[in-house]
Every structure is written in C-alpha cells, then in structure tokens.
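note to self: dont lose this again. the chain is below, predicted strucutre after it. 337 aa total, dont forget to put it in the shared folder this time
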Amino acid sequence: MKTYLGIDVGSVTTKVVALDEKYSVIDSLYLRTRGRPLQVVQDGLREISQRLPQDIEITAVGTTGSGRYLAGTIVGADVIKNEITAHAVAASHFVPGVQTIIEIGGQDSKIIVLREGVAVDFGMNTVCAAGTGAFLDQQAARLGIDIASVGPLALESKTPVRIAGRCTVFAESDMIHKQQMGHRVEDILFGLCQAMARNYLNNVGLGREVRERVVFQGGVAFNKGMIRAFEEALNLPVHVPPHHEVMGAIGAAMLARETVARTKRATQFKGFGISELNYRTSSFECHHCTNRCEIVQVTVNKQLAARWGGRCERWETTEMAQPAPIVAEQPNCMTCA
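---
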C-alpha cells in the first residue's frame, strides 16, 4: 500500500502523519517537542513505524514547521514547505470552499486568506505569545486545571468577565485580580478565551477580511471555549476539521506526493532505520558579507549531512548521494558575489 509521510516540527509540538492514496489518515502522532526536535523526530518515526501495517511502502515524505529543514535533512524529505502552504493545502482538501483559516499553535498563530482555493494573504504573530497555546497551557497550570478541561469549563460560563488579553503579563495579572474579586473559575476561563480571540483578530487578523467558510486548525482548536469565542466575535460559524491538530503534517504529505508524481523521481526517504542514527547539530556565523547569516549544519557519525540557513547558496549542501529536496523559499543574497 502506497503511503505518504508528513512531518510538522513546531516549537512546542511535533506531528507525524501517514496518509493513504486517498489522503485518508492511516495513523498520526502528536508529540511534545520539548526543545529537542531532532530526538523527537527520530522517536516519532520509530513509534509510527511500529504502528503502521506491514504492507506499506513509503513513496513520498514532506516536512513543514519551524524545524522543517532539520526534519527534512534527517528523514530525506522530497519536499520542504512553509506552514502557510501546508495548512492551506490540507484545509482546502478537507473543507472545500474554505476562505479563512485560523491556526493557533503552541507559540505562534497565523491567519491564512484563501480565494478560490489559492492563498492570497496571511499574517502571523511576531512579538507576543498572548494568543497561543503555550499561554493557555500556562494559565491552566496556574489555576490547577488540566488543559483538556479548560474548554468544557469555559462553556459553563454564564457571566464571563473581561480579561485584558493584549499582553501575557497584563492578562495574568488581570486573571489574578478577577480571582481575588471572587469571580467563578469558568467565567474567568471563558473571559480568557474571549480575550485571546480579540487579541488574535486585532493583531494577527488586522486589516484582513474574514469570510465564510472559516476553518479553525491547530492544537488550540481542541478548546471548545475558543471555538465559541471566535464564533461570537466573528458572528460566523467556525468549522473544526477532523485531524485539525495535524493539518500541517497532512499538507506536507500531500505536497510531497504531488512533487514526486510531478518530478517522476523516486522518494528520497532514508527509511525508518534513521531513528537509530547518531545525528548532531551545530551552527556558525558566515562572515562573507554583511548579512552575517547563521549557518546550521547536521552531521551523522561525524560526517557532514547538510547545511542551511544562509540568504545565498554559498553554504547550502545536502548529502552527495541524495538530490536536494524541493524547498519553497530560497531568497538570493545580492551582496554575496
């Protein structure tokens, strides 16, 4: 059975997905990155290889997320794509007619505007994590509540309180103040959900027209309180697709299949045995021009496997035995001659 792998390496979570030829999810993993993306990718491959049927054949692999280059080097990716493209492709497949994607992850959030199936605009949070999953995690832990219970509790709110949500510090101080005033926990939690929705729309979504259909993706979409808060703020229904927490990985797998089919070349996947290899990452600063790019390099058993990170291609290398994966973004540095 032909199978396609997608890997989404984020700052907080790493997602691994296996798709069949109809883009149905055979299996998926949702793992904590824990600041060790390389090890978690290897652990994820080892675990999913044990869970997949024996008769599968991996015919394409794609990577996305903030750690997409590292993951692509480790696994032998056929395509390396940014999160915007991966999420847009997956959402369009599972929710035909989607025009707005709300995606909130562990430490970042983004909005993607689609028109006629094409991503025409996007926005991301750049300076603050007030509207992300990590902040929600932190506040749930401070209240002594399991993160999975936040949504159901928030839905029990009858008189939500207004929380100042434009800053993590002010939001936390405001929540403490509301607790001291005697407000119920569920009213504070739904007030926090409303504050996060307002913060998202006023910052990430600023200046962008939100049209139906609206799709909510990412791990925060598990929180039913956030779904209700967005629906109230937008006065529109918000759709949460199946497998919403791994949509980036699904999109990467779909793009990998399309790339392999278009280029008519065999997959570069190195096999599940790579989970046992000894990888090491390091970095150095290039002094060839004034850009001072930080170059990341990966070695396997002390042998150079790949380098990336420059604005030009001076240091871009991959293993000599492998063609370079197709990368979505490769801006040229005009100052490097």
